[in-house]
Amino acid sequence: QHCFTKSPDGFLYCEDTKVQDVMEKVEKRPFYLYSKPQITRNVEAYKEALEGLKNSIIGYAIKANNNFKILQHLRMLGCGAVLVSGNELKLALCAGFDPTKCIFNGNGKILEDLVLAAQEGVFVNVDSEFDLENIVAAARIAGRKVNVLLRINPDVDPQVHPYVATGNKNSKFGIRNEKLQWFLDAVKAHPNELKLVGAHCHLGSTITKVDIFRDAAVLMVNYIDEIRAQGFEVDYLNIGGGLGIDYYHSGAVLPTPRDLIDTVRELVHSRNLNLIIEPGRSLIANTCCFVNRVTGVKTNGTKNFVVIDGSMAELIRPSLYDAYQHIELVSPAPPAAEVSTFDVVGPVCESADFLGKERELPTPAKGTGLVVHDAGAYCMSMASTYNLKMRPPEYWVEEDGSVTKIRHGETFEDHMRFFEGL
Ligand code: LLP
What we know:
Layout: E1 4-6, E2 12-14, E3 17-18, H1 19-25, E4 31-35, H2 36-50, E5 57-61, H3 68-76, E6 80-83, H4 86-94, E7 102-104, H5 111-120, E8 123-126, H6 129-142, E9 146-151, H7 180-188, E10 194-200, H8 210-229, E11 236-238, H9 257-270, E12 274-277, H10 281-284, E13 288-300, E14 303-308, H11 317-321, E15 327-329, E16 339-345, E17 354-362, E18 369-372, E19 394-397, E20 403-407, H12 412-416
Parallel strand pairs: 4-19, 5-6, 5-12, 6-7, 7-8, 8-9, 9-10, 10-11, 11-12, 14-16
Antiparallel strand pairs: 1-2, 2-3, 4-13, 13-14, 13-18, 15-18, 16-17, 19-20
Helix pairs in contact: 2-9, 5-6, 8-9
Bound molecules: ligand LLP.
The site of ligand LLP has 22 residues, from helix 10 and helix 11.
Domain Orn/DAP/Arg decarboxylase 2 C-terminal: 32-376
Cofactor: pyridoxal 5'-phosphate
Active site: 349
């Protein structure tokens, strides 16, 4: 069951709510619209897949979407959190996440943030020699031993856009196996500051083949065998996030959370490990549409353009990664509307400002609603205020069909506040 569907008469619905009706009720500006029940269903799919694996943790990658209301909901459903900055850690704590289900990741963690992590007792991934030194220093300042996992760079090609690949040997993330012994010795040398509890890897994002996860997990359990052979009692295997979704809406059968977990289940059992996963996109992307209005239609040379009010400022993935996100109109086209191939573009002063290229659409009238699908992950969280297009408001459809605002849209007045008192 998916939250966004077209009715036979051509209207887009979010659960049982007509998107057009929402557009008429809310502020006249681009907005993000989520389905709260879809968020629940996505978490349940992971929980069901993890049944039978003791003490597993679903660490939601907060970077994908940091809406506070969404975080509270995910926490209530039992998720932990994966953090990449001190502010994400603070936010997770504010949202009530259990620190023992939180993992602090990153290749450039700063001392101040590590001290907070140490005080709160979250898991910390060790990324480099200097990172280990900083974690030791943080443990001393906090007066608390830190539970650490070694982030190993397994050199498995995730077969994705280079900007979202992280587990190749030349990437900036993690530790290469040649250096593993150095890290084990360094942990041994700091028994009062560090407790090694596991190993972590993250291969990349938008991965659509589970074999890639399996190849990495095979390497990882071998590393865990090596680590255990030196007397460390490590219990956790963290296989990171990265499961892709069907951005193309092509009906292609993509791996599900169950497929992902099933491909590593036996390995995890064979070593009696606790599994940590760090999904972002596969929990939140498909729960949301970015809703826009058509400002007008124009033609230049051989190109037709649909110009909308939203832009690369609110949703940068197409511009940054050439990412495809499915686009459709929220209402039926008049019978006479001609179907053409359009680039869907925003008002920002850059030719990189497009939401979709070469899309077949019925020529829309001014004011028609147009959505960009699968906008729940890495869209609002990567939004900027470029061209002073302020960050948009967010709404969700609740279980009972009511529509609630879950974040205010930023305003010009918000912007001017940065200069008050200067
Ligand atoms: N764990 C680690 C260590 C990560 O670096 C990431 C994402 C995740 C988990 C979550 O991965 P996911 O399940 O969401 O694929 N802005 C890009 C994606 C960047 C992903 C960065 N790391 C995009 O819009 O596609």
